[in-house]
Design brief:
Shape: elongated
Distance between the termini: 51 Å
Structural class: alpha+beta
Helix content: 25-40%
Number of domains: 1
Number of strands: 12
CATH class: Alpha Beta
Strand content: 25-35%
Largest sheet: 6 strands, mixed
CATH topology: Ribosomal Protein S5, domain 2
Length: about 280
């Protein structure tokens, strides 16, 4: 790579990307409001999970696996099951990711995706109860990066939603204080679905679904979760400390509203299950 410092490379890349944007172009030729090709496959690790999905946005790929276990409810919510999303940014996906415990970026990734699911009340947690106050289903969704070329959040949102929608697990009942199977199979009770759309601010320009080169020079990004009713259930600013004007926030929200329906449709087609 020569003797360039990180600052010099960043400056060169920033000017290159900004010059293209000023001409109405992006590094990969897309329109400012255009996603890369999206593909979702479900039931990719059926032997090791109750539900799974691989989501690809361009050259970014993530896998989601869902496990459904039986446990005790939280004391303050005895009539609700449990959902939890975790994420691992594996070094196999990018030399930018390090081996070891989850770093700040991985924790943020999991929290943003989890918030999109939780705040939209996608999963009917009251439908995850076996016996109130005693036993409930606990739904764990683990996200794992496979390839990274920008916009992990949206890819993880697609993978998590598709995995949850395609999950099938054994129904259990409480019999003489023992949890036993009934012989029936259940789906996760899902009553809403929020997809996340990320818009990157680079200078004065907004671009949807940033690639890695755009992420490296962005001022900040705005990720918005939009549900079936076109409600914004979560919003997260990250990816940099640069300011974003209210007018640009409103513009980004308009982009997210426009793109959400198509993103949900990809999930519905991949899973064969529709909500709403």
């Amino acid at each position: 790579m020569g003797d360039f410092s990180a600052e010099t490379i960043s400056h060169i890349d920033r000017k290159y990307v900004q010059d293209l944007l000023a001409k109405g172009e992006r590094v990969d030729g897309r329109a400012f409001d255009e996603y890369r090709d999206i593909e979702i496959q479900v039931d990719v690790v059926a032997a090791k999970s109750e539900g799974s999905a691989i989501a690809r946005i361009g050259d970014t790929r993530v896998i989601a696996g869902v496990k459904v276990l039986v446990g005790e409810p939280y004391p303050d919510t005895p009539d609700e099951g449990v959902t939890m999303i975790t994420a691992e940014m594996a070094p196999i996906a990018s030399p930018l990711f390090e081996v070891g415990p989850p770093k700040e970026d991985a924790i943020e990734l999991a929290r943003v995706v989890d918030r999109g699911v939780r705040e939209s009340e996608s999963v009917d947690v009251k439908g995850l109860v076996i016996e109130p106050g005693k036993k409930v289903y606990m739904v764990f969704c683990d996200l794992y990066t496979l390839e990274y070329d920008g916009n992990l959040i949206d890819a993880c949102s697609l993978a998590a939603n598709a995995a949850l929608l395609s999950t099938k697990f054994a129904e259990m009942k409480l019999e003489d204080d023992e949890v036993v199977p009934t012989g029936r199979e259940l789906e996760i009770p899902i009553k809403n679905l929020a997809v996340e759309c990320t818009v990157s601010k680079i200078g004065e320009h907004l671009v949807v679904d940033p690639v890695l080169k755009e992420e490296m020079v962005q001022d900040c990004r705005l990720t918005m979760a939009v549900d079936l009713n076109d409600h914004f259930t979560a919003m997260q600013k990250g990816g940099g400390t640069g300011p974003i004007a209210l007018k640009q926030v409103e513009e980004a929200m308009d982009i997210a509203l426009e793109k959400a329906q198509a993103l949900r449709e990809v999930i519905f087609e991949a899973t064969g299950r529709r909500i709403g």
